[in-house]
Amino acid sequence: MIGYITLGTNDFDRAVKFYDELMSHLGEKKLWQTDSMAAWGSSRDVPALCIAKPFYGADATISNGGMLALKVSSKEQVDSAHAKVISLGGLNEGNPGHRGNGGFYGGYFRDLDGNKLNV
């Protein structure tokens, strides 16, 4: 059902560099880029993560209560990705660990524009 998710950015070049490094670290590739939008994923046949400058030129703002989860396949990938985000200047919003009844293992962070994600 989901084709892609888009996060807004106020510094497109900085955001592209951040997500280039993070997505490469997760084994994903850049699918395409224009002067105002870029997308990463494994192919154009599955959901992708996009960043974009707001279409009408207003400032990008973060979602209050919104969060995007990046799927990985192991606890080690969660730990590694979370550490990578912090090394790239992202903010820690919750160290990697078990959540709920122990069936979910995740780490939470904010990207350089303040968007909240977990892995």
Description:
With 119 residues, this protein is α/β, with parallel strands linked by helices. It has one domain (4-55, 67-118): 2,3-Dihydroxybiphenyl 1,2-Dioxygenase, domain 1 (Roll). Helix content is 23%, strand content 34%. The protein has 2 helices and 8 strands; from the N terminus they run βαββββαβββ. It has helices at residues 12-25, 75-87, and strands at residues 4-8, 29-33, 37-41, 48-52, 68-69, 91-99, 104-110, 116-118. The strands form 2 sheets. It has a 4-stranded mixed beta sheet, covered by helices on one side. A 4-stranded mixed beta sheet has the order 5-8-7-6, covered by helices on one side. The longest helix is centred in the first third of the chain and has 14 residues, at 12-25. It is globular and about 45 Å long. The model has no long low-confidence stretch (mean pLDDT 95).
Features of the shown structure:
single chain, alpha/beta, four-stranded mixed β-sheet, 23% helix
